[in-house]
């Protein structure tokens, strides 16, 4: 059952892999895309400050997920990466992969990654469906 964060065709075309962590994203953006690095720092610090009040790190993870795609594009300047980024900006969630979660009744609940990188329910896959 597939459980990819990003499509295999995207991985095959990537030459530089950027870890989905704050330090890796910051390092990549500071070297390759200083303008977006400044925005990443600002949004990251704001999310951390807000998380200090309620201990909820979801907003920090959303910043990480959003700028991870930007860092990957900066590290892999190829037409395909730019196409994927444009699809993300236009709300196309299919680029984020999917995960199948087996259910007791034999079906699978299919979840896809949304623009924030979180899993969101997509549909039910019944036995025999492709």
| Category by helix and strand content | alpha+beta
- Please tell me what the overall shape is: globular
Largest sheet: 3 strands, antiparallel
* Number of helices, where a helix is a run of at least 4 consecutive DSSP H or I residues: 5
Summarize the amount of helix as a percent range. 40-55%
Give the tags.
130 residues; 3-stranded antiparallel beta sheet; 14% strand; disordered N terminus; 5 helices; alpha+beta; globular
Topology:
Layout: H1 8-13, H2 22-32, H3 34-54, H4 58-75, H5 79-89, E1 98-102, E2 108-113, E3 119-125
Antiparallel strand pairs: 1-2, 2-3
Helix pairs in contact: 2-3, 2-4, 3-4
Folded structure, characterized:
The structure is a single chain. With 130 residues, the protein is α+β, with helices and mostly antiparallel strands. Helix content is 52%, strand content 14%. It contains 5 helices and 3 strands, in the order αααααβββ. It has helices at 8-13, 22-32, 34-54, 58-75, 79-89; strands at 98-102, 108-113, 119-125. It has a 3-stranded antiparallel sheet with strand order 1-2-3, with no helix packed on it. A hairpin with a 5-residue loop joins strand 1 (98-102) and strand 2 (108-113). Helix 2 runs antiparallel to helix 3 (34-54), helix 2 runs parallel beside helix 4 (58-75) and helix 3 (34-54) runs antiparallel to helix 4. The protein starts with 7 loop residues before the first helix and ends in a 5-residue tail after the last strand. The model is unreliable at 1-5 (pLDDT under 50).
């Amino acid at each position: 059952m597939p459980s990819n964060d990003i499509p295999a065709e995207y991985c095959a075309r990537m030459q530089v892999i950027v870890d989905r962590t704050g330090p890796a994203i910051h390092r990549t953006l500071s070297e390759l895309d200083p303008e977006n690095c400044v925005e990443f720092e600002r949004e990251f610090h704001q999310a951390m400050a807000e998380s200090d009040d309620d201990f909820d790190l979801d907003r920090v993870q959303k910043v990480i997920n959003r700028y991870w795609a930007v860092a990957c594009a900066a590290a892999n300047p190829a037409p395909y990466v730019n196409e994927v980024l444009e699809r993300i900006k236009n709300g196309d969630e299919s680029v984020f992969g999917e995960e199948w979660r087996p259910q007791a009744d034999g079906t699978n609940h299919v979840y896809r990654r949304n623009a924030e990188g979180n899993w969101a329910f997509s549909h039910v896959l019944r036995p025999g469906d492709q």
